[in-house]
Amino acid sequence: MKISEIISYLNMDAEWVNFNQTRDVVMFGDSSQTVKKVGVCWVATLPAIEQAIKKGINFIISHENCFYEAGTMLPIELIESRHKKENLLAKHNICVYRCHDVWDMIPEIGVADTWSSIIGLPFARRNLRSYNSFATFEGMTVEMIAKKIANALAPFGQPSVTVLGDLNQQVKSLGIGTGAATDVFALVREKMECVVLSDDGSNNWIAHQYCIDNKIPLIIVHHSVSEIPGVRKIVGYLELKFPDLSVAYLEEGYQYRTVSND
Fold first, then answer.
1. Measured in whole angstroms, how far is the alpha carbon of residue 93 from the centre of its chain?
2. 47-95 per-position pLDDT tens digit
3. What stretches of 8-167 adopt beta strand conformation (E)?
4. Where would you tag: which of 97, 100, 186, 238 has the fewest CB atoms within 10 A of its CB?
5. Are 59 and 127 in a shared domain?
6. Which spans in the chain are helix H?
7. Which domain holds residue 46?
8. Burial category of 149 from C-beta neighbours within 10 Å (exposed 0-12, middle 13-18, buried 19 and up)
9. 150 and 86: one domain?
């Protein structure tokens, strides 16, 4: 089996993706080579690549860009780190494919739907072409919602969340997005009384300030950890289709710990 055959299967029936302009591309290596073993990860960090080498994996499916960012004017540190990864991948003949646009929105098993399902609130069925999910319920405090989210994320590397706003405020709805694409205004337009934003998808001087000014409690989660539960499902998805294929999840190192003052 060729690596390209697995890529074709991942992209099959993904009507929500414009494949003429997509993030889902081969980022490194040759997809025409025969696949030996597959590794799946949220992003191919150096620890993940090292695990792949030890396991004899020659095809990595990475949800995010493992080469940081594109551009011709980058910090020398990023360029050097990228070259280190590229040299290691080349030495071990590893192909890296980014599966992002497909897996964010693939129904039920993808990033967006897995994220909403683990929280434990009654989210409505998501619009297939939207990153956002919305839940309405009987009133509960913001602290109760925050604890639900922290409990849901704890097994994946984030045992706590940050709340901006009144922990005791009673709310009857929650809006969440998917990773850094989450837009606070898209959530409040749906009349959500509490919102969840990604740590690297929001900023203090706009989104956070707006929430303070309008008394909208804001819960902040890590982009990586909120998406990893859905990315992990790629393993089972491929195993079901290709039972003879060896597929493993590669641990990226996203384990966050909160240190508080005494």
1. 26
2. 999 999 999 999 999 999 999 988 888 999 999 999 999 999 999 999 9
3. 26-28, 37-41, 59-62, 95-98, 133-141, 162-164
4. 186
5. no
6. 3-11, 46-55, 76-91, 101-105, 111-119, 142-153, 184-188, 209-213, 223-231, 233-241
7. 3-104
8. buried
9. no
What is the chain's length?
Answer: 262
Output the CA torsion sign for 29, 33, 36, 42: positive
How far is residue 121's CA from residue 65's CA, in Å, rounded to a whole number? 31
> Do 82 and 117 fall within a single domain?
no
Secondary structure (3-state) at 224: helix
Would you say residue 231 lies in a domain? no
Tell whether pTM > 0.70: yes
Q: Are 214 and 171 in contact (CB under 8 A)?
A: no
With contact defined as beta carbons under 8 Å apart, do 129 and 122 qualify?
A: no
pLDDT exceeds 90 at position 233: yes
Residue 37 corresponds to which amino acid? K
How many domains, in total, are found in the chain? 2
CB atoms near residue 73 (< 10 Å): 4
225, 115 Cβ separation under 8 angstroms: no
Report yes or no: 197 and 207 within 8 Å, Cβ to Cβ.
Answer: yes
**End-of-domain residue from the set 104, 125, 141:** 104
Residue 127 is given by DSSP the state P
